[in-house]
Amino acid sequence: MSELFEQTTRPDPELFFRKNDKNDVRLGEIIPSDEKDYERAEVVILGCPQDEGVKRNNGRPGAAGAPAAIRKQFYKLTPFGIKARVFDLGDTKVDGSLEEVHDRHKGVVAQLLRDGKRVIVIGGGNDISYPDGAAMAEVFGPEWWIAINVDSHLDVRADEPRNSGTPYRQLLEEKLVRPDYFYEVAYQSHFCSPVYYNYLREKGVNRISLEMLRSREAADLEIKEQVRQKFINHSASMNTFFGFDMDAVRSADAPGTSAPSPLGLRAGEFIVLVKYAASLSNTKLIEFSEVNPEFDIDDRTTKLVAIGMHRFCSGVNAA
């Protein structure tokens, strides 16, 4: 366990909001971050404050500040409905190259998964999906996990070096995830290269566009049905990863992202998908990326992710 704390930095105590009202307790007053409290935790929060992958992909920098900005909003919320024991491990150390950061982050996430924790990762750029997914593959095996990328983009670019547009290409090419266990969700065709779309189609990746989600009565029905079949075929042994790139949410609800768009998921639809992730007993990791506080308006984006984290924690069944 000590290695986990050597590879991470502790969260800034100033982010843990305190209202000092016994009748209105806030999360900042009750969620621990001391090493002695780790063993009892069921859900662990881990940040990765870097945006080097965004810069490499010619995106607008600023996502490095997201973990702190999101925590600031999360710790103002109340514990209403949260029964699971939550722990804040802090942030993966981000010194060195992006590749070195990914290796370090993968090691931390893999240890959390081996310790039986459910993990909430807050980026940082969406390139973090590569080490998060690699950790899932290392711990559970490539045959035993489902990856769900909720994003307006496909993130299977054939670029060198790696960047925020390459994570799922890396996972597929390195055979760390099965194509038929990978879901591209809420993508928008006008943002997607036909070349990369055909790459996914030819590999047999599951594709659920924003338009297809909207064709259902509820945003999660299409995913539910398709994922349900995987669980039926493989009993309760399947493990699930949800990656939420906040670019998938329309800019009216999430203006502070690396690549905002006027079209996208509504805030309520985003929360429905997060609650679905929490409802699956084998969701091991949920990730929120591409938040850019430098361009946020009234903290809408960081507040939305904070509420999403709250809904995930309250939807997880406590041991």
Distance between the termini: 21 Å
- What helical percentage do the residues reach? 25-40%
Principal-axes shape call? globular
Give the SSE string: HEEHHEHEHEHEHEHHEHEH
What portion of residues belong to β-strands?
15-25%
**CATH-derived topology:** Arginase, Chain A
Counted by DSSP, the helix tally is 11
The CATH architecture term is 3-Layer(aba) Sandwich
Describe the main β-sheet briefly. 9 strands, mixed
Q: Please, what is the average pLDDT?
A: 95
Provide the domain count. Answer: 1
CATH class: Alpha Beta
**Record field, number of beta strands:** 9
As residue ranges, the low-confidence spans are: none
CATH superfamily: Ureohydrolase domain
Structural class: alpha/beta
Q: Going across the major beta sheet, what is the strand order?
A: 1-3-2-4-9-8-5-6-7
Radius of gyration: 18 Å
Structural features, described:
It contains eleven helices and nine strands. The protein has helices spanning 2-6, 52-56, 66-74, 98-114, 129-140, 167-173, 194-203, 210-214, 221-234, 267-279, 300-315, and strands at residues 8-9, 43-48, 86-92, 118-123, 145-150, 182-187, 206-209, 239-245, 283-289. Helix content is 35%, strand content 16%. It has a single domain, classed as Ureohydrolase domain (Arginase, Chain A, 3-Layer(aba) Sandwich), CATH 3.40.800. It has a nine-stranded mixed β-sheet, sandwiched between helices.
